[in-house]
Specification:
By secondary structure, the chain is an alpha/beta fold. It has 2 domains: about 35-155, Rossmann fold; about 170-235, Winged helix-like DNA-binding domain superfamily/Winged helix DNA-binding domain (Arc Repressor Mutant, subunit A, Orthogonal Bundle). The chain is built from 9 helices and 6 strands; from the N terminus they run ββαββαβαβαααααα. It has helices at about 45-55, 85-95, 115-120, 135-145, 150-170, 180-190, 195-205, 210-220, 225-235, and strands at about 5, 35-45, 60-65, 75-80, 100-105, 120-125. α1 (about 45-55) links the parallel β2 and β3. The longest helix has 19 residues, at about 150-170. InterPro entries: Sig_transdc_resp-reg_C-effctor (IPR016032), Tscrpt_reg_LuxR_C (IPR000792). Keywords: DNA-binding, Transcription, Transcription regulation. Pfam families: GerE (PF00196).
Length: about 240
């Protein structure tokens, strides 16, 4: 299988494109002229390529980029039947361009491909059978706005995966998916309730020295000015 890239009917076919890691963005609202979203399309064959371009080229919200300008795309759409080895290699290459978010339009999404999708930094998934014009444009605009899009069943599997990770890997080590460990979050919560160092030490059964060290580590790691700043950070991010 050879992934080909093109964004118009005259673009070269049958060649992989490796976006530059220093990819550029367009300017203006939405990052593209006139508020349009710049898109590069990667497809595994001519039929998929032609269908995707036909869907997007008529939409005023979309700026389809030629191959030579693919590195400045806000959104890269990868269109395949299944997530195979060649697709994974392409997704990893696209991941190097931090200016571009990658969406996957796939015919059949195997359950084992969920972990691969996460590792490759895929921001959105749409099944090809549901990829009508409006859904494609919604997907592209959502990604350009920093959002993620998943079919409901994949979202459920993703949440189950995260829950399993928390339960089997992080909990036994006293860690969480947040930027704070359980111990750090508890100490900052006590700070938010007005407790001083001695009171926090008494309530958590740690020494005052340990409490000071933990709070200092949090402030240093997250570049927070003081305890009040730490409380504000934790509350804004829903950590306490």
């Amino acid at each position: 299988m050879t992934i080909t890239e093109t964004t118009n009917s005259t673009a070269a076919r049958g060649q992989n494109r490796r976006p530059d890691a220093a990819g550029r963005r367009t300017t203006g609202a939405g990052g593209a002229p006139g508020g349009r979203v710049s898109v590069a399309v990667y497809a595994e064959d001519l039929i998929l390529q032609t269908g995707m371009i036909h869907q997007l080229r008529v939409r005023p919200e979309i700026e389809l980029l030629p191959e030579a300008e693919a590195d400045r795309a806000q959104v890269s759409l990868v269109v395949v039947d299944t997530v195979g080895e060649t697709t994974v290699q392409l997704l990893h290459r696209l991941q190097r361009n931090t200016s571009t978010r990658t969406g996957l339009v796939v015919g059949y999404f195997e359950s084992g491909a969920l972990q691969t999708m996460i590792e490759c930094g895929v921001a959105a998934v749409l099944r090809r059978g549901e990829a009508d014009q409006d859904r494609l444009v919604h997907l592209v605009r959502a990604m350009a706005n920093g959002e993620g899009v998943l079919p409901g069943d994949l979202l459920g599997k993703l949440l189950d995966h995260v829950s399993s990770l928390q339960r089997t890997v992080l909990d036994p080590r006293g860690l969480t998916l947040s930027t704070l460990t359980a111990r750090e979050a508890e100490m900052i919560r006590l700070v938010s309730e007005g407790c001083d160092t001695a009171e926090i030490a008494q309530k958590t059964s740690y020494s005052e020295r340990t409490v000071k060290n933990v709070l200092h580590e949090v402030a240093t790691r997250l570049e927070l000015r003081n305890r009040a700043h730490a409380v504000g950070y934790a509350m804004r991010h829903g950590l306490i």
